Known about the structure:
Elements: H1 2-6, E1 8-13, H2 20-28, E2 33-37, H3 39-47, H4 51-56, E3 60-63, H5 73-76, E4 80-88, H6 90-97, H7 104-114, E5 119-123, E6 135-139, E7 143-147, H8 151-161, E8 166-169, H9 172-186
Parallel strand pairs: 1-2, 1-4, 2-3, 4-5, 5-8
Antiparallel strand pairs: 6-7
Amino acid sequence: MAKIMNQRLAWAITGSGHYLRDTLALLATLENVDVYLSKAAAEIIKQYGFQAQLEATGHKIYQDKTASSVPVGLFYEGAYHTLIISPATSNTIAKMAYGFSDSLVTNLYAQAGKTRVPSIIFACDTAPVSDLPFIESEAPRENIVQIYPRKIDLDNVEKLASFEYTTIAESFSCLCEAVSMRLAEVHL
Length: 188
């Protein structure tokens, strides 16, 4: 039990603006989080003007700058109780669904699974939760765009949902609920 109390939350962000603002706001409410940025996430956060918001969270930030994804070794040291990936691009989802671990974020997911650390993933491309056939997503400069998820993207999310120690959040509110439940579980 003492081990879990000293463990942190690992949070990976990929290169999507979909619910990025909300993700950073949620991160600001959490403690003991290490934030991992894919190369694209580092670019997108700056493009959207969210760098100051990310830094204001006070969390340690790791960026994808090494070929071997050195920081994933923290999973072997038992540093984390949970991995969150939000937002997760369709590219990242596809790679994880087919076992690729060729980037920092996909390596985090692979190592979390190999060390039996639960992962919660909020995919950008999920089925619309409204009667509309699209998802509204924020683009740079606060523009709202309509996104129509492709069947292959939905299929990859479904495939990933069948993996051990993996929870798929189908909406941002589901992500918030899953994170809250997991933190309550860890702190019992």
